[in-house]
Amino acid sequence: MSTDVTIIGAGLGGLTLARVLHVHGIPVTVHEAEASPSARMQGGMLDIHDYNGQLALEAAGLTDAFEAIVLAGREAMRIIDRDGTVLLEEADDGTGGRPEVQRGELRQLLLDSLPDGTVRWGHKVSGARALGGGRHEVTFADGGTVTTNLLVGADGAWSRVRPLLSAATPAYTGMSFVETYLFHADTRHPAAAKAVGGGSMLALAPGKGIQAHREKGDTLHTYVALSKPQEWFAAIDFTDAPAATARIADEFEGWAPELLALLTESDTAPVLRPLNGLPTEHRWERVPGVTLIGDAAHAAAPNGEGANLAMLDGAELAKAVAAHPDDIETALAAYERDMFPRSAAAAVDGAELYGFMFSDDAPHGLIDMFTGQEQGQGQKQ
Fold first, then answer.
1. SS3 of 363, please?
2. Residue 250: exposure state from Cβ atoms within 10 A (0-12, 13-18, ≥19)
3. Which residues contact 231 (CB under 8 A, 6 or more apart)?
4. Which domains does the chain have, with CATH numbers?
5. Which residues are documented as binding site for FAD?
């Protein structure tokens, strides 16, 4: 079996790449390990930025469709002290610079924009090898194979395509999130809902924090952050939800009840999310016929840029291929030349943000960062 462009992974980056290639009339096939679009929950809210994610959607011809799924008001943000005192509050200014959408709805928008059959579900990659001349063969868990002139790994932090280019693997950052949900929060968990407000809420302390976001309707999605070694989390039995919840809650003794409720009253079992990342300056020498986008290329701890960068990677790679349809190597070189510094700068900014969020003077360092930015913007205007 042969195809012009083979994408591994039907996340936001892979689907954006497929859509922009389709806009330019370039055939593409996406192989995805999941059995269907609804095989698992697709995560929570995403703020799609006007300097990267929105540019990708514009290249995909999907700006109007995107605007139709934006959740008004969710750009509001507040920082709360551990006793529940609001220390900083910013309203959603309605300018649309970072509008919020549900990840699952954005993914479905991209899926709906592709011709039927573009995505091949249930195709889990077991390996990939070079055939020479820029061609590659991908082998799937069911024994099937596909050969391609251009192979793109859009398959996340644990990419099966990356070894063709790089020996790097993600390393633990020293922090993990514990994910919880409260459903029908305004009626069933009113104190927690009031604490979170209409958008996002950050309650931070040195090395720990409770971060929550109001999703569609009155669902509250929470990430409890802890700077602990992996061995510490490994000693917790997350299959015993009450015991795991109690152990995590012990780390927040004395915090306001409405903040603790985001963990202790969860309507779902707590899920451990270790944060892993590739080296900040991760890059590779040009290898004919293969490249990476998104977390496969530059996985980092969540900092609000990951999905945006993945989508921009996809759009920029597609535009480069469209500009050089008969010279794939020129296209890949141009894409990687711009992608490497772009992703490295985002990783540096993300590490700086985490420093502000969880430093010894948290949450005041983050507040100073926000207020300093606002003063700087005011001076420029």
1. coil
2. exposed
3. none
4. 2-72+97-170+278-358 (3.50.50.60), 173-276 (3.30.9.30)
5. 47, 103, 295
What pTM was computed for the model?
A: 0.94
Instruction: List the binding residues.
Output: 40, 47, 103, 295
Distances (CA, A) of 362 to 188, 335, 368: 30, 38, 10
Average pLDDT over residues 13-27: 97
Angle 79-238-359 from CA coordinates, rounded to 5°: 30
Distance CA 79, CA 260 (A): 15
Whole-number Å distance between alpha carbons of 71 and 319: 29
Q: What would the two tokens of residue 196 be?
A: 């979170």
Per-residue pLDDT band at 370 (split at 50, 70, 90): confident
Q: CA-to-CA distance for 79 and 212, rounded, in angstroms? A: 11
Residue 372 pLDDT: 77
Distance CA 330, CA 323 (A): 9
Q: Which residues are annotated as a binding site for NADPH?
A: 40
| Nearest CA among 193, 48, 167, 183 for reference residue 107 | 48
Sheet with strand 86-90: strands edge to edge: 86-90, 77-80, 200-205, 208-214, 220-226, 171-182, 271-277
DSSP3 helix / strand / coil % (the chain, rounded to 5): 35, 25, 40
Q: Which of 81, 101, 51 is closest to 342 using CA atoms? A: 51
